């Protein structure tokens, strides 16, 4: 089989205007960006506001190995399979971050014959949305630090000097870090505002840090806003600092929210692309599901649900991660839950979940994991069972997609399929990677069966509960653990956030994706663990409380042999090595 | 008169495909990005490689006030004036940096009836080129710091562990800082790689800094590359660090140059836009003329010179800044010098150059400067005279454009015009701001006269001279000063760069734009000064030695009342306040 990049570059793509027309998007609702991508205008939503709504399918997975289980392949493949069986379908995916593209993970366009194309445009810049998020985020950072600087410099004369209110910002309590869409470990913790002795020309010295842009609250806002007015309002609520008397200082307070909205205006429109088999695909926002909510945007879903009968989207990592947040955060903001969920599983992934191997991120997987091993598969099956039941916990019908790899044996696949069926869940083997949509028609039929079932979607917790009650529910009902352990900082954060009136927000858990628990070493379906809560951060614009559990990094690093080593351009300007 | 933004938003623009067609660009050489902008492919250069070359007009100015003298207005207005008198003309300008847009300067699209439109697209993102420069730059930064980290961590086992050569990089001599396209004073000097006690998980702690993206060497490379292959080769030569034995460590050495080229591939194509009167305009690169070379790209010039008879471009600040670098750096890389230069002058700007006022950046100008004042005008005229002679020093015919403001009197303009004519230079009053091209036809005729004269372009110095000789020539012949004063660091830098074999590169002077000298307080045509040289930095990819004189900042800060205060979006998503 050819490499992903060669398959993508050799694909015969439709002009994007034709893709749009077939999807029901009018020519004047489209802003083409070259031949292969286009922004879709908000006017589409105004035109179709009363159109019947399609069904929303969220693709999730078992607890992944560091290699991933092929969730994007299955998302794209399923959409192609649905098209192949005659459904009017669209896919909605996140924009890949350039950090992992140049780091350890490579691109995120799917793979084989189930890709969004052109994969090099999807993986690099696309239409610039992530850059816009970085710019808006870093404008707010520069603005709050400059405001603190000028307030300090002028003291009581600040108002008279500038005509702006003195917000009495506490320089020690600027809570807005900076972002960059790159894996850069040395930026995790920094001291900013270094000055020559006796000078303050470079602002106030303080410790700060950089997150990867996917972790920015603005990325969450881009994904969770219902429209442009909602986006603008949410930007105003972002808390950048606290005053000396403990009041939140927002982007609106320092009058930077309008400029942030101007920067994000074009990014608020999803980008239309296509799969290798011509399924119209909206690409929008790029949050990570471990350190953010990890789902594509509500705006893209809203558009797709008005254009198509079935919309396939994807939540990051396992169902304890992106799918949980698709239900408890995204569905709450959108007023629409999933109608079905696909749980992607692989033989190798379940064996990795057996607990029989010492797996560490960044290290090669043991060869045994790719070979038949009935005992390991049986032990790892507990993990798949947990994820099926987890999806059902939200009232969402589950369909298991067994994503076939070349080395997989028919015997093990048949055994696994039987086990899933014995649980009463739907299951299909997917060969979407090798065969495209033709390899996913069985899965497509199963999904249509699940969608025929009346949906009974429910949240795991009510937002109005206390923060501690929500965290407890997440740890116990959400992950199967034995409660939570709050650090002193976490207790203080909770008290402060509730006193400020933000106790009613849902919680966005930052957690390792490599276990259902907080501890990456606990494989399968662990039950005997207590979730440590290190601290909580208010994301008033995104509309959630961000909760740090365990040791979660909000800025990855580059590995010893990073992905960029192989990437180059050839004499014709074609990009090479992006899939190596 | 309406505001710039309203004029721009109300303009009837041609579809960009029509603009391209009228300019002689084929449909398959164009990558439209919406209705109003398009990337132009390199295939145009292949098709037109042997086409006759047009004439290149560089617009420069007197020593500017902090308000600017209307150089972009005159550039755009002149191009419209040339079109009005029947010339086939194109304009080439730089992409505005978002730093000044949200800081103190506002947009950079021209103004009044001489603008590139839509101004909000030009001023925000455009087609993402500056974001691409930031991303490529910061990938190199993350890559070199990660390489140092992994080399240190593994020591002698690094090669065996990774299959990569141990470059023996000196952690103390990583010379590649990071960039952000924002005015952010607190990032000027930072400590990166802070770690918890006993840990090195966040890399190696060291002092570092951020420049604004316009100052990035990669921005210079984007502007100075002749084509994509040249761009790729230059990226490989960028020096990121030095080894323990003093050898430069390049982007090629750590195999990151290919990925940087992939990031910059689309940005290497200029963006086609149009002026309010339909003059095709290529927007490309965005270096600042005080901290970089300050000119639009060679690639854009090459395209425009094959399509049009006259190409109007712009060098930043006064003729001691962008124009000097257009001659000594850009023309050397392009193999083509300017055929004529326009020196923009204003009554208020010359009065500001009289030395009679205490002008400080960021503070309001005194009212007197806008009122008739024969003595101040006469005193300030010395500055215009210097810039006319400076242009002529390069063998380039000069045309003075007196950019008229509403409060200017006929008497003072007539006096000034007479003074210029008495010097034997061409001169015209420009009303391009208020009247568009119709206000610049006299200027257009004068420029055509100047172009009829045989050009006799020459460099100020030969690149092969020693670094010290080049600096001396710049200080004396270039600025009219009395030599240079080298700091100890500068002397050491010179010795090191010559020993490494880079002594033959031209010099890129980082200097205040507010005086012909290094000292912003010295107005008019100062002569009794010695240029202090603080240090020199190798830009082996851009192909010049970057020279720091005086106190030049490579990262601006946000003022007390920053430009972003007024910016917002309205209910229809239109951007407001960008011109306030």
TrEMBL record, chains A, B:
Entry GO MF terms: ATP binding; formate-tetrahydrofolate ligase activity
Annotated keywords: ATP-binding, Ligase, Nucleotide-binding, One-carbon metabolism
Residues reported to bind ATP: 65-72
Uppermost EC category: ligase
Annotated EC: 6.3.4.3
Source organism, top-level taxon: Bacteria
Record has Disulfide bond as a keyword: no
Reactions performed catalytically: (6S)-5,6,7,8-tetrahydrofolate + formate + ATP = (6R)-10-formyltetrahydrofolate + ADP + phosphate
Protein name as it appears in the record: Formate--tetrahydrofolate ligase
Natural source organism: Ferrimonas balearica (strain DSM 9799 / CCM 4581 / KCTC 23876 / PAT)
The encoding gene: fhs
């Amino acid at each position: 089989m050819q490499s992903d990049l060669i398959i993508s570059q050799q694909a015969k793509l439709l002009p994007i205007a034709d893709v749009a027309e077939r999807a029901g998007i009018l020519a004047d609702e489209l802003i083409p960006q070259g031949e292969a991508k286009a922004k879709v205008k908000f006017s589409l939503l105004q035109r179709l506001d009363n159109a019947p709504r399609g069904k929303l399918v969220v693709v999730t997975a078992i607890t992944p190995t560091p290699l991933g289980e092929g969730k994007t392949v299955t998302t794209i493949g399923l959409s192609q399979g649905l098209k192949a069986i005659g459904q009017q379908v669209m896919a909605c995916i996140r924009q890949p971050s350039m950090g992992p593209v140049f780091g350890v993970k490579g691109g995120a366009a799917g793979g084989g014959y189930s890709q969004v194309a052109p994969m090099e445009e999807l993986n690099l810049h696309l239409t610039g949305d992530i850059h816009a998020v970085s710019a808006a985020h870093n404008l707010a950072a520069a603005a709050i630090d400059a405001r603190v600087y000028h307030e300090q410099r002028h003291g009581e004369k600040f108002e008279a000097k500038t005509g702006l209110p003195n917000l009495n910002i506490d320089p020690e309590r600027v809570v807005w870090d900076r972002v960059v869409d790159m894996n850069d470990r040395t930026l995790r913790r920094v001291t900013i505002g270094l000055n020559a002795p006796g000078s303050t020309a470079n602002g106030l010295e303080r410790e700060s840090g950089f997150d990867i842009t996917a972790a920015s609250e603005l990325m969450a806002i881009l994904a969770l806003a219902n429209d442009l007015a909602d986006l603008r309002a949410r930007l105003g609520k972002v808390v950048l600092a606290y005053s000396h008397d403990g009041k939140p200082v927002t982007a609106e307070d320092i009058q930077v929210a309008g400029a942030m909205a101007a920067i994000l205006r074009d990014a608020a429109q999803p980008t239309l692309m296509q799969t290798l088999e011509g399924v119209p695909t909206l690409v929008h926002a790029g949050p990570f599901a471990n350190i953010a909510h990890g789902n594509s945007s509500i705006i893209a879903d809203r558009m797709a649900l008005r254009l198509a009968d079935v919309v396939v989207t994807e939540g990051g990592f396992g169902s304890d991660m992106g799918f949980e947040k698709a239900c408890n955060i995204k569905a709450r903001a959108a007023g629409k839950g999933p109608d079905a969920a696909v749980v992607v599983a692989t033989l190798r992934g379940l064996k990795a979940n057996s607990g029989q191997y010492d797996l560490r991120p960044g290290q090669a997987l043991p060869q045994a994991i790719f070979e038949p091993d009935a005992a390991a598969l049986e032990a790892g099956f507990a993990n798949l069972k947990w994820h099926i039941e987890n999806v059902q916990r939200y009232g969402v019908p589950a369909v298991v997609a067994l994503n076939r790899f070349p080395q997989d044996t028919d015997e093990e696949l048949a055994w696994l399929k039987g086990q899933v069926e014995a649980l009463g869940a739907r299951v299909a083997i997917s060969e979407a990677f090798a065969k495209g949509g033709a390899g996913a028609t069985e899965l497509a039929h199963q999904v249509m069966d699940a969608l025929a079932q009346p949906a009974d979607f429910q949240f795991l917790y009510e937002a109005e509960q206390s923060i501690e009650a929500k965290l407890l529910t997440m740890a116990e009902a959400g992950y199967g653990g034995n409660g939570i352990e709050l650090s002193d900082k976490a207790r203080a954060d909770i008290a402060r956030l509730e006193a400020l009136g933000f106790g009613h927000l849902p919680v966005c858990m930052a957690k390792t994706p490599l276990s259902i628990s907080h501890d990456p070493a606990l494989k399968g379906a662990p039950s005997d663990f207590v979730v440590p809560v290190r601290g909580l951060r208010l994301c008033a614009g995104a509309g959630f409380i961000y909760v740090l559990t365990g040791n979660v990094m909000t800025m990855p690093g580059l590995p010893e042999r990073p992905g960029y080593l192989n990437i180059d351009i050839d004499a014709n300007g074609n990009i090479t090595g992006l899939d190596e």
